[in-house]
Specification:
alpha/beta
């Protein structure tokens, strides 16, 4: 098969330039991608050619130049596409061995496929995205949209990401949760909380906290029981009011406010690469879906509620080498960072090359655990693992929250099948998502204008359509 098309590529200068693309190959033999007549990428078999219909503009697209992946690129990952028969699909963004139907690596085998170091990411890392007329989608990453509408379907990727926060930090019966900073992602998170509440039959209260009344009215429509405008209500009146605060502000100030509002847990859902409470690698923490918890024997057994992982290997900061750690069925490694790569080669053969947990004492060590090596995007701790903080007296808002028994949780991509199931089983919620969230629809040639609108606070969700 062969297709040729023009596409608007996003550049490091935060602009768009037009390029000519060619896809040559087949699902059974593999594909070669050409850009302006030059080969730029060869893909193995397992990719299906789809024609893009709709693609959403999200915060990751707007800040794409700050991510550590090459530009220019056709970006866009909130995709609705169709095959040659007209069947419509949504596309999961992680391109892994599992997604392509190849022999799985250790990450896929252990249920961590979206964290495979060898993955490509649709519209983010190398794989051309949904702002192009055609995409090449891993065959196991495409899901038919079922009975939901096209405009609801194009929200599946961000809705699934929002739902991932709920499933990894599920509210308990009779608890009180808040979403701080609802707009695009935050209001989808409110909808995900409402959908989860209906499906789980749990009783908990959802509060939306924002500065704009029109945003809060949307939150109300999508399932918030209460709304609080902090332009008129002092945050001091809300201190320690919520069991879980889901922070979608993507700002250091928002995160610090979340710490003040939460009794026990802050779920960090959105970041923008800035230092937060002295932690420089907070965005990478979210990429790896790590947690920061107080050190305790109970937390040595930490795992996501939806998983059943048994922690066995634990890295301990050398600053704690005089402390005694002894727990049955657990291995503690008092190892300097420069020795870790050698340790992996000896001790982790045929296993996930990460520790299950790390124990540290300060924010500098938190950063070291998240990204210990300058030349690598690998953490010391496995995806969905945790960093345990040993009690200390350092003056730091995050550490104070942890020392008082608080937890920092994080999440990113979600499960499309669960998301589609909730959307199909809740037609009223699906309809409200379409009518309240999508404020602008433009044609693909107006992509620069779409980005301009997406950055404007008057919009919620902007989508582009391919004719």
């Amino acid at each position: 098969m062969y297709v040729k098309f023009s596409a608007l590529e996003y550049t490091q200068e935060d602009t768009f330039e037009n390029s000519e693309y060619e896809f040559l190959g087949s699902e059974n033999t593999g594909w070669t991608i050409f850009r302006n007549g030059k080969e730029i990428l060869h893909l193995s078999k397992g990719y299906k050619l789809l024609k893009t219909k709709l693609c959403g503009v999200c915060s990751t697209d707007l800040d794409r130049r700050f991510l550590p992946f090459a530009l220019p690129q056709i970006i866009g990952h909130e995709v609705l596409a169709e095959d040659e028969s007209g069947q419509a699909y949504v596309v999961e963004i992680n391109d892994t061995y599992q997604a392509r139907g190849e022999e799985e690596d250790i990450f896929c085998k252990l249920g961590l496929s979206t964290h495979s170091p060898d993955r490509l990411v649709l519209g983010i890392d190398r794989l051309p995205g949904g702002f192009g007329k055609y995409i090449l989608a891993p065959k196991n990453a495409i899901l038919p949209i079922g009975k939901i509408s096209s405009k609801t379907a194009v929200l599946t990727e961000p809705f699934a990401a929002a739902l991932q926060a709920v499933l990894s930090s599920p509210p308990k019966e009779n608890s009180s949760v808040a979403v701080l900073g609802p707009r695009r992602l935050g209001n989808l998170l409110i909808a995900a909380l409402a959908g989860y509440r209906t499906q789980s039959k749990k009783n908990f209260t959802i509060t939306a906290i924002a500065r704009r009344e029109n945003i809060l009215q949307i939150s109300k429509q999508l399932g918030a029981d209460k709304t609080i405008n902090i332009s008129t209500t002092s945050p001091r009146e809300l201190l320690k009011s919520f069991d879980i605060v889901y922070d979608t502000t993507a700002s250091p100030e928002g995160f610090e406010l979340a710490l003040e509002l939460s009794k026990k847990e802050v779920h960090l859902k959105s970041t923008n690469g800035q230092e937060v409470c002295g932690v420089k690698k907070m965005t990478d923490l979210v990429v790896d879906e790590l947690s920061i918890l107080p050190y305790s024997e109970e937390n040595l057994n930490f795992h996501w509620e939806i998983d059943n992982w048994k922690n066995e290997t634990i890295w301990v900061s050398p600053t704690l080498q005089n402390k005694l750690f002894s727990v049955n069925n657990k291995k503690f490694y008092f190892t300097k960072l420069e020795q870790v790569k050698n340790l992996w080669s000896k001790e982790f053969i045929d296993k996930l090359p990460r520790f299950d947990l790390a124990i540290v004492t300060n924010v500098e060590e938190i950063d070291l655990v998240i990204r210990p090596f300058v030349d690598s995007q690998e953490s010391l701790v496995r995806p969905k693992g945790a960093i345990l903080v040993y009690p200390n007296t350092e003056e730091n808002k995050l550490l104070k929250f942890i020392n008082e028994g608080g937890q920092i949780r994080s999440s990113r991509c979600g499960n499309f099948q669960i998301a589609l199931q909730i959307l199909e089983n809740n037609p009223e919620l699906s309809s409200k998502l379409e009518s309240t969230m999508i404020t602008h629809e433009l044609q693909i040639h107006e992509l620069a204008k779409a980005f301009e609108l997406a950055r404007d606070s008057s919009s919620i969700k902007v989508i582009v359509r391919h004719t």
